[in-house]
Structure formats: C-alpha cells, structure tokens
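Batch manifest, entry 17 of 40.
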Amino acid sequence: MRYIIIFLLFTQTIFSQKTISGTILSKETSTSLSGVFVRDTKTENWTISDKDGNFTITLPYFQDIELNFSILGKKEINQSLKDGQNSITVYLEDNTLHLKEVMVTANKERKYSELTLGTNAINNVQAFSLDDVLQQLPGQKTADFTLNEYKNIVFRTASDGNSSKGSKAFGTSFVINDIPISNNENMQALSPNTPTLAGNDYGIRNKVFNNPNVGVDLREIPTNTIEEIKVIQGIPSAKYGDLTSGLVLITTKVGNSPYRVSASIRDATSELNLTKGIKLDSRNSMNFGINYLDSKADPRDNLLNYQRVSGSFAWKTTDKLSKIKNTLNLSVRSNLDDAKHDPDNITADVVKNEKQGFSISNNLMWKPSNIWLDGININSGFSYDRQFSRKERWINRSLTAATDSKEEGIHEAFVIPSQYTSISTVEGIPISTFVNLETTKTLTTTTNWVHSISFGLSGRSSSNKGEGRKSSATGLINFYVLAEGGDSKLGYRDYDFNRTRTETQFSGYLEDRVYKKFEKDKILNIDYGIRYENQSGNVSLQPRINSSYSLNKTFRVRGGFGLSSKAPSLNQLYTGERYLDRLLGSGIYSYPGVYQKAWILTVVSPGDNLNLKPSKSLKTEGGIDIDLPFANINLTGYYNKLTNGFTGQQIPVSKEIPQANVITNGTEIPTYEIVGTAKLYYLTNSIQNNTNSEDMGIETIINFRKIKALNLDVSMNASYVKTNDNSKSINYYASTNLLSAEKYGVFPSMPTTNENFTASFNFSYHIPKAGLLLSLRSEHTILRTSYIPTSEFPNGYLDATLTYHEIPVEERSDLQKYGHIIRTIKGTQTKLGDMLHNFHLRISKDFLNGFSVSFYSTNFLNLKPYYDKDNLRTMYDIANFSFGTRLNYQF
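Output type: structure tokens
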C-alpha cells in the first residue's frame, strides 16, 4: 500500500497549469460584482474578483473543471467548464424567495455524507438559535419551544438521558470560520463530581442553565450572521480534532449588503436583529451585526427569563493581485438566565446565571508565488468570558453544624440556625486560544490523477482564572451540613479555579484529496489523511479516510473510516479535594442561654482526576447515491463506537482517624479528649473513563424532482439507529441490615439498549414571481424502544472494612443469606405504542420594496397524543402548539 501511495503522489508528476479567466455579474442589474470568492471545488485554489468583476485562477489540471462562486447576499453556485474552455461569464442572483429554486432542507449534493444548510434552510424554521436549525436533520426531532434551559445536540445516536449521551454531546465540535468553539474551560458546577451531566446545581423546575461537560450551549449562537452550516455526522477531515460525535462547520460571509432589520416574536420570546455590510473600496469591506433576544418561560409572569445580547464585527481585506485574503472577526456576547423569587413559594430557588465575554479571530489566506506551495492559511482565535452563577434558597430545618476548614482533623464547628438563607456562587473566567497553520499544494500526474495535499499544525489551550466556588458558613446548602450525631456527610469547601493548570493540545495532520475521472463518467474521490494528537500528554495517531466512486451518472458508492478523540474538560480534571465531615459525640451540644457547641472531624480525600484520558471514537460508514429522473436518493449505513467515555465511580477508602470523647458538665462549656484511633471506611467519588457505547443505523434522504405543474418541491428523510450503552463502573448499594457482615452489595453496571426510527417529509410550494413560499414539514416517530436492565443479584459484597468478597454464582439469588443486599428495583422496558405524528407550517412572502414577512407554527394542527401509564392518561413528548412571526426590512 505504501508503494502505491508513493506512486500516486510522485510518479510522472507534472507542473503544467491551466488559467481560467472570467467576469461575474449581477443577474438582476447586469453590473459587475467585486469581491466574489472563486474556489476550485477539487483543490484548494482560490481567487477573488476585482472591482470590475473580473477574475483569473490558475489550476494544475485541464479537465472537468468546476468553480464555486459565493458572495454575501447572492445565491452560491457551482459552474462547470467544458474541456478546452478558458473563459466564463457568471451571473449571480439575489438570495431571496424570487429565486427560481429555493432549497429549504439539508442539501445532499456533495462528495460524501455531509449535510449543508443554507440561508433559506436556516430561515425555514424561524430560528432563534442554532438549535432550532439543527432540529431539521435526520434523526432529530422538533422539541417544545423554550430557551430557558441549555441546548446541545448529539448526532446518530439513540442514547437518552444517560452518561453516554452527555459524553457524546461533549464530543460534538462547533467551528465558526475555522475557529473551534470550546466548552473545555467551563467549570460552572457547584458539585463537579458528576462527570457528564450538568446536574441541577444551577437550574430550577427541572430546567438546567449551566452546561459543563455536556457540549456547547446552542442558545448562545444566533443565526443572524450565518450564511451556511455544514454538518459532518460521519468522518471529519484530518484537519479537525478534539471531537468524537460530530462536526458542525459554520460560515459567516463578509461583503457589501444593505441594512437588514428583523423583528421576531414567538410565544413569550422576542428577538431583534440588525446587520449591515459596508464596501469601503474594491479590496476592503466591513460587516456588523447586533442581536437581542428576550425569552420568558411563561408569558404570564417574569419569574424565569433568558436574555441574550450579541454583537459582531468583521473586516475583510485583499491585496491588488488577489494573492492575500484576510478576515478579522470580533464578537461580544452577554447571556443571562434569571430565575426570580416566586412570592407563592418561599422555599423556591432564586438563581442567576450570567455570562459575558468576547472572541477575536483572524483568518489569513495567502497564495505565495512559488512552485512549491499553492497556499498558506493561518487561523487564530482567542476567547474570554466571565461566568457568574448564584443560587439562593431559604432553609427551614433543625439545627445544623458545619466547618470551612480544609485541614484534616477535628475542628470546632459553626452552629447554624434552623432558619437561614443559603447562598452559593461560582465565578469562572474561561480562556481559550487556538492557532492553526496550514500549507496546501496540488499536483497532477500525466495520467490525470489530481492530488490536493495539505499539511497543518495546530495548538490550543484551556484555562480558567475565576475565583471559583464560594460560600460562607451561614450560606451553605442544606445537604452540606450535619444534623445527625455521628453521621458522615459530604462537606462543602470553597475552591479557587486559579489552582487549575492550563491544559494544552498540540496536533499535526497530513491529508491528500485525490480526484480521478475515468471513462464514461466514472469518477473517484478519496480524502485520506492522518492526524497526530497530543492532548495534555496523551498521544494518539488518528487515520481518516472518505471515498466515493461514481459508476455512472446514476450510481455512486461511498465509504469512510476514522478515529478521533476528545480531551476531558477542566471541570472533569480539577474537581477539588473531597471532604468528609463527621460530628463528634452525639452532635450539637447546647445549654439554653449558655452555649451551643459542636466539633467536626474532617477527612480529606484527593479529588482531582489528572489521570483521566481523552475519550475515543471509531466511525465507519458506507452509502450509495442514486440519481433517478424523478428523485435523488441517498442511503447511508454507519457504525460508531465510543470508548473511554467519562462517568462517575465510587471508590472504597479507609483512613486512620482519631477517636474522641466529649466531656460535658452542666453549664460548663463542653470539651473533648482524644482516647485513641480507629479505622474509618467510606466511599468517595472519582471520574473515570468507564463509558463505552455503540451506535449502528441507517439513514436516507430523498429529494424528489420539482413538480413544475404544482410548483411543488417534495423531500423526505428517515433515520433508524440502535444504541448499546455500557458502563464499566461498579455500583455499591448499602445493606438494609445494619448488623450484617455485608455492608454493601456490589453490582456491575448493566448495558442499556435504545432504538429510534423516525421520518420527516417536507412539502414546499413556491411561486418565484410572487416571492411566496409555503412549507409544510411533517415528523413521524415510527419506533422507539428502551431497555434498561437492572442487576438484581450482587456479584459480591463489601464487609465492614470495605474489603470485597466474591459471591459464588449459585448463591447470588439466595434470599435467606443475601436478601438484605439484593436489589428490589427491576429493569425497565418501554416501547412506543402507536406512531407519533407532528406537522409544522411556514408561510413566507418577499415584497419588492424590501419588506418580507414569515409566519411559523409548530404543531399547527394542535395534536395531543396520549397513552395510558400506571392507570393515568399521559401525553407523549411531541412539540406542543406554538406559533410566531418575523418581519424583515432591508434598505
């Protein structure tokens, strides 16, 4: 194989070139368009049209040339050149509903299995955030409209509500203009020992605001400046790293554009947008955008409210010879989750979750004038945020005691009154940096094999410089304090995030994109490469390959394979020490009007998980594309395997602790004396690489040819996936008999299985002359099963010294001997009864005077399917009825 690759790369390599020139005009006005980005679809060659709309591009091959033309506000097109053709005139249309063809679904016209969503597909769901857009993809479903909890996404999986889903969402990478968005630095968790779920540290009414360890919060990404979204659910290019589950590439274009103002409203959510592109001269242009959103959970009150304010600025410049293109992007943001006091519930949580920050990035593309390199690309980014989370709760309970000491030993405790206000805060300052240097070169052999070779190096860093988790002795949450005499409980301590270390990643990659056309429309595309990844000292080599072969104009087969990895977050690595607090004697000693006294024995266990390794992913897929006279059909089968996923694990620990007697004597203040030592046995928590998961499935997308007599476009997608989640964690369950020798039953984690089969249809009625679009989207859940077994019988037990004892297989079900450690909870199995259906409607109209209006409704038929559960009538979880409208004006 090695000699074949060397042969393909270097044998009979020639450097002959072909120059293509052309002019780009506006179709509506026939005026020249400057600043149009012209890209060869087979190589990395590019150029930009000058002030007169003219361009020249030099290519290292002669046949089957296809160029891509894109500019802000115009419909992006691909234009093929006939063999021997050296010049071309291209007309670009305004990207409005007056276009002859409008694509409102994911586009499947590509080499492999990636999905592309353009401006019209983004607008088709009246998106308030990126989450609304991605719900259109195969295997996803439209959820109830709410922005009052964090949003993330996982591709090609049926995992639901377990640690595997959290690990997979954390492994979904989002990249804006070649700069990754990082959530590795997010440490906004009061109790960080939950590895993959954000938990309820900062949330209310089952709505969680913070998202450490579970991926990017999609609410924070508005869509007002996005021109294109490309989703790679399969094997990503070797260029991209720190991911396991999927890759979302977001592109924002810079160029001249009119003022665009839009106002949207839906339920209790309103949004305002303003964007403008300014052309300074033929080589410089600037864009800015402002977005404001306010979303309430209930239109009748303001108790639960989410606000988002963001601004963006971009400056693009090119040189006179179109050899250099540089784009500078700056974005600022502010997000606020606010759960206010409920006057009808004095014990309700009051939560405020704030985030303010900025990002700056630069994309440089340079075509040096030498024979050895076609291009040099340098992408760099810096992100800074301040996150502040605060929870307030009114507590009413018996007297409690607590300590803030971080030293092991016996300490005098604070006695906390029975009624107090508990306040806890977390302040984080996540900082991330990224830089990537890439060189490209295209070679063509005498037998017309085209090789586009890229080599790159990249580095990134993650740190958090916030003040961390804070509280006060009179502001501790109730489960961090002690009431029962002699009981042992998890103790809370402040934790300074400056104690954490800056984590770094370094990577290098080499990739070759191969193109070869054989006789009679037989075309071969192969993208193969290898990525070297060093994630905080954990080194791996990750080969990746995507391939497709067109048998003729009708049939094309595809296949791919790849390895990737995702580094653990700072919140998983740096959890802080674990503190076990135990009251001395019989608890709190008090003499009315004289004293209240208590002592706490504190035991300290190491907490950081610095031996945590990156999670790993193996992806394979195969597919076929069929281009028929009536439809284009794409079918893809896949198998994905996640290993080393992050999950929690209890660990038995023993400690030598002092034994003390408390001495009381009437009104005299009590004292204590050390009378010896004893062994303390307890369970502590850690985060380990214990989660494995397998996803296997098949998905299809069918785009039917337009029914011209009806002006109707019809498309559909369907997805079936089966997921097996398996954790290697060991579970310990306390015995119900305190006097027995068996203190904990030891149970293995059991694998869970989930299946989903969904389908969706989209019907678009489009009248270009009127600028009118009616779009109906249906969703159908055909199959949904879940099997969560429970290991009823223990494999063994822990005795009083937490020593493990294996139980013989034939004795594990012996109720007389081990009934006190046998679990009575049975496994659960659920299966969808009847199929679920939902329908969503959009009506849009573009007027010639610059106004446009759209109306969007989720579940516009107001369907409410019910099923019987435990003799109760329960509604299925389909999106409820919701409607809204958007008004746009450009001038």
